[in-house]
Amino acid sequence: MTRMFSRAVLVAAMVVAGGSAVLADPPAMMMPPYMLRPAAPAGDRLKPGGDGKTLFEVHCGYCHLLGGMGTNLLTKQRMMMGETPDKGLLANRTDLTADYVKSVVRAGKGAMPAQTKVDVTDAELEAVSKYLGKAG
Amino acid sequence: MKLHLPPRVSPKAFDAMLTASAAVVGKDWVMATDADRDAYSDVYAPGSSEEWPAGAAIAPASVEEVRAIVRLANEHKTPLWPVARGKNLGYGAAAPRMAGSIVLDLGRMNKILELDSTLSYCVVEPGVGFFDLYDAIQRAKAPLWLSVPGNAWGSVLGNALDHGIGYTSYGLHARNLCGIEAVLPDGDLVRTGMGAMEGNPSWHLFPFSYGPTFDLAFTQSNLGVVTKAGVWLQPAPETSLEIVWDIPNEEDIAWVIDTIAPLKISGLIDQNVFVPSWLGKMVLKGQRKDFWDKPGAIPEWRVQELLKQYKLGYWQVALRLYGDESVVKARAEVVKAAMKRHLDAAPAEHWWRQGDPIGQYETTMGVPSAVPLQMSDWIGGRGAHMGFSPVVPATGAHVMDQLKRSRKIIADHDVDFYASFTIGGRFANNINMLMYDRDQPEMVANMRRLFDALISETAKAGYGEYRTHLGWMDPVAETFGFNNQALRRMTEKVKNALDPNGVIAPGKQGIWPAAYAAERARNAGGKA
Question: Which residues are the signal sequence here (chain B) (predicted)?
Answer without folding.
Answer: none
